[in-house]
Amino acid sequence: IKICGEKGIPAAIVISAGFKEAGPEGARLEEELKRLAKENCVRVLGPNCLGLIDTYSCLNASFANGMPEKGEIGFFSQSGAMCIAVLDWTLGEKIGFSKFISLGNKADISEIDMLIALGEDEKTKVILGYLEGIENGHTFIQVATEVSKKKPIILIKAGVTSAGAKAVSSHTGSLAGSEAAYKAAFKQSGIIRARTIDELFNYALAFVRQPLPKGPKVAILTNSGGPGIVAADACDQSALQLARLKVETIEKLRSFLPPMASFFNPVDILGDAHFDRYEKALKILVEDENVDAILVLLTPTATIEVKETAKVIVTYSKNTTKPILCSFMGKNQVEKGIKFLKKHGIPNYFCPEDAVSALEKMWLRKHWLSQPLPQYSQIMADRSRVKYLLEMAKREGRFHLTETEAKEVLKAYRFNLPKTKLARTKEEAVKSAKEIGFPVVLKIVSPDISHKTDVGGVILNLETPQAVEEAFTEMMVKVKERQPKAVIYGVSVQEMVQGAKETIIGFTHDPQFGPLLMFGLGGIYVEVLKDVTFRIAPIDKREAMEMIREVKAYPLLRGMRGEPPADISALVNGILALSQLALDFPEILEIEINPFLVKSAGQGAIAVDARLTIKKE
Q: Cα-flanking dihedrals φ and ψ of residue 474, to 5°?
């Protein structure tokens, strides 16, 4: 590397293994490599990589066997072995590439550099990647968002399970972030997620070869009922919709199809159809303004002329702005037709569900491109008060704030809190309850107790002085039995907020992406039900609203069976306040408000319980 710098060579590929993926000594060598590269102004691809291929320069600077065809797909991978397997598969499938790059350990050149380079590359129309870890998550999101506005980015992220994460560590030394964080990061930056290599290229071929649909409405044309039903079910379970055909379209279909055919969507032209039936039906569907995309299914019956049908599809595809995808099902009898489709830019999928999945990703990209840029807003907050509370806890060697302190932080960020008083004796508890007004809630106050319910530290709906006195005594006994070493400051007496929906909001610090915001339906069952959604901070009102809509229980918030709708705007404001708090104070490791009680529309929301943890220095 030093000699490269002296000779004015600006870049080098290090294919050698034995660096950070091999252990501490290898990690030391990799740091030395990075230092030398920086000192000598040499950009390094690798180490522990396959190399790179540039088809338009006829350059194969790798130890892979074979040169792919020229194409419009740019592919990068952190795994060299994955590169070899994918390359061999695509050579057999005749899939072309613009660039084919193995990143290896990413000592210098990373996936971020690849996104920038392929985003600027005129020969690349679609960017594909295989990732095992991302070091600089914040920059990755910024770059990916910018690039994906120009070109589709389709990625596989491996190492999302605990077993996968361990494999990643031993393979490339990367730290795999949590699945929730990657899912949120990809969604926010417009990245299309593929789960398998098949999906990666299924999606890529659709984006390379077909225009994006203007809307989600799909028409299905088939010569067999079963595949049509399968495709319809897949559409129903996706973000797509079955197009409602115009009356004129149905009448035109009825004019030439047999009486037993289906004139509605899916349009079934029956198993005795010849290619001319496909031609007439396809022409009518293309002209229907209610149809945004068309899926053509074909099974090799005794009467169908497969290649002639393929020619019909190619003809209409060239004369419409609507995407047309196919599923010619089978192998030997449909092979010539599939080859003709591929040659002329029509993606074909063995299963109708795969075709539907590709169409769905195309529609989601179209929808994402139409969204406005984020509009971030600032909240008036008492940052000096929060800074004081955090510094006081640090000075005392505490990393968990008490509930009272956590609520003080929330109050500084304009959260509404229940009426609360601290009581050290049962007499004080009764007096506080009378001042607040019945019913009340008692909660243990201790810096050592995070989950108060688990130790009997929460008692609800106390309606009389006697009930408060008895609850205070019972709580102290239970807590001391279950957590005898805990320091207890007293008991918090709170107003009992009634007639509100329980939600949970919070954030935790992800090692790759920073603050990871969470929203879900609250209460003690949140960890079991896991009806939660995530985003990376910062977010704006639109993203906060999307978070709320994504949970399965969202209809409960909208109001059901005569119930009034919840105050969604108060919920949005709470999520945005946490987003800003997370960015203002990166030393906060996590905060959770559970429950965050949302009242009826226009009545606000109340942060009933909160816990906050700060990082150890």
A: -60, -40
